[in-house]
Specification:
Layout lengths: L2 H22 L18 H18 L25 H21 L1 H15 L5 H22 L12
Helix pairs in contact: 1-2, 3-4, 4-5
InterPro entries: DUF1468
Keywords: Membrane, Transmembrane, Transmembrane helix
Pfam family, one: TctB
Length: 161
Amino acid sequence: MALDRWIALVFVLLCLVYGYAAFFTLDDLLPPFMQRNPVWPSTFPKILAVIGVLSGMVVLLGLEKAAPDTAKEPEINYRRLTEYKLGQALVLLGLMVAYALALRPLGFLLSTFAFLTLGAALLGERRFMILLPVAALATGGVWYLVQEVLGIFLSPLPRIF
C-alpha cells in the first residue's frame, strides 16, 4: 500500500476515535437545561469527525486518483524521505508544542506573535517589515474577536506570580 494510503488509514482511525469521544462521551455531564439545546458542545467535534472519516476514506479508497492512463509517480516517495525538508517540519512541530506551552506563562498576545513570526521566518519569509505588522495585526485581531466578540477570556499579557 502506498504511503498516502497508510497515512489516510491512520487518519481515519484517529477520526473514528475522536468521533467516538464526540458522539458518546462529551455530552454525558451536560446539565439538564443544556440537554434541550439544538447545538451542544459536541456538535462541532461530531461534524469534524464525520468530515475527517469521509475525506480519509476518499484517499484510502483511491477516489481522488486520476485516470490510470495519466498516472504518474507519486509526489511523496517514502524511500527518498531524507531528501525532503524533514528537519524544517520537525522544528515547526516543536514550535507548535512550545507555543502551546507558552500560552499561559507568556499570555496570548506575546506567544502568538512570537509563534507567527518564528514560524513564518522558519518557512522562508524574509521581509520582516511586512511580516511583523501582519503578525501583530493577526494576533490582535484574533484576540479581539475571541475576547470581545465571543466573550471568551484569554489572558493577553504574561502572568506575574
